[in-house]
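#struct-pred
JK: can someone run the complex with heme C? inputs below
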Amino acid sequence: MRPIRLLLLAAAFAPLCSSFGQNIRATGKVNEFYAANCSNCHGKKLEGGLTPAQNKVPSLLDDEWLHGGDDESIAKSIRTGYPEKEMPPWSATMTDKEIRAMVVYIREQQFAFRRGDTKIDKRPDDLVAKSKLHNFEVHPWVSNLVEPWGLTFLPGNKAVVTEKKGYLYLIDNGKLAARPLIGAPLADTGGQAGFYDVVPHPDYAKNGWLYLAYSDLQKRDGQPVSLTRIVRGKIKEKENTFADVETVYQAPLELYPKAAGVHFGGRIAFDKAGYLFFTIGERGTGTNAQDLTVPMGKVHRIHDDGRVPADNPFRKDPKALPTIWSYGHRNPQGLAYNSATGDLYDIEHGPRGGDEVNLVLPGKNYGWPVISWGMDYPGTPIGEGLTAKEGMEQPVKYWVPSIAPCGANFYAGDLFPKWKNNLFVASLVGEQLVRLEIKGDKLGGDEMLFRDLGRIRHVIGGPDGALYVLLPTKISRITPAE
Ligand code: HEC
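RT: done, structure tokens with the ligand placed:
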């Protein structure tokens, strides 16, 4: 049977076979090049996956092609990329010969897949693991979610979770509501746009305000534009609604970038004094981060009702936006306040390498896109190619290569006493949970706790002292193990 089948397959790919072995020999290491440059998006076995921002990346095995499946079309896809969809162009990094070898490599992997030689493993649901200070186990808590993004706990064994595609769900005693809350705003959900963080007011028990960050869709001159906006509302459980919604932060319409796209930020944190901090990414335009007249690439600070604090650092600068607290940020998808020390940290995606944890201080410049520990996607230097510069802050921690960090929180529970006040960071591409011992601008311990359950979007401690992680389709709960 086998030789005949192979022969048939070979016939189907006749045009390719003419130059088969030759190109593979020309580069030799095409598989290593794939593993180093493509696998983090297209999957280790070319099975497809998600980009750092969790957009879908197609399988290269199934012979279904978005942009044509003949050799030249595939080569063209690799050469020019689809930057608006996060597929980088490779023409500056790969020679034509190497691109040709990559096409052949993709064909070989397709053969293996059709023969049934490629096993694509399903991720486990459960895990028992040892770590330096505590042993722990991980089990699903709430399943059947689609891209959960933000999670918060409310009194009475309740929680609220956002889904990226624009939904807000109540969780009651670990049970997900059958339907999303009605009355939540309509969001832009293209690209990385959607619903982001959800955080209760520090006095939630008294006032019931719940804050939501999302990408607000508007029209300007007939064109769709969108930008991160913060609203607050109150949950009416009987009616399953998000009611009394009011805007807390919205930028002037003329500053909204084109809709969809990338780097919206979207985390919210309150400090002990009740100030509200939130992040907006630079929307793929690095220069925004250094421009104090636009809200992109910044951490902002406002009062709980949206008023601008009188002592904000740029309040007296007539050209700067008064809500800006710090700038030079790329895509801060994590924002964590340590209530034990009063320190605020942002966690941001680097370009390719150079993910950062920063101690966020008022008026400071965190350097993007002028300085970075990473490089551009196709492997070229960023900005001035510098990692440090006078007047620009250094991260407390950076990752090279990138783990694509996202949500983060300090642990304040009692179930894991030795983890108290440690910073937990979720990672998407790295699929790992990281524990950092951070004090001020000093990094102590640094430990990867587990990986391989899938991409982790966020991590937060619950009132029960457990840690909760947001995986692609569920929330899992971390508790102590023997
Ligand atoms: C940062 C993520 C990312 C990386 C890295 C990446 N890709 Fe892609 N790639 C994508 C996405 C997303 C698409 C789908 C684009 C679209 O929807 O139009 C894509 C599309 C493609 C396609 C076209 C598929 C089709 O269905 O027509 C090919 C071929 C491809 N990639 C090959 C590669 C190769 C080879 C590498 C490494 C040299 C690579 N990609 C690296 C994200 C990535």
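RT: quick notes.
DSSP finds eight helices and 27 strands in the chain.
Helices lie at 2-12, 14-17, 20-27, 30-37, 39-42, 71-80, 96-114, 204-207.
JK: thanks, will look after standup
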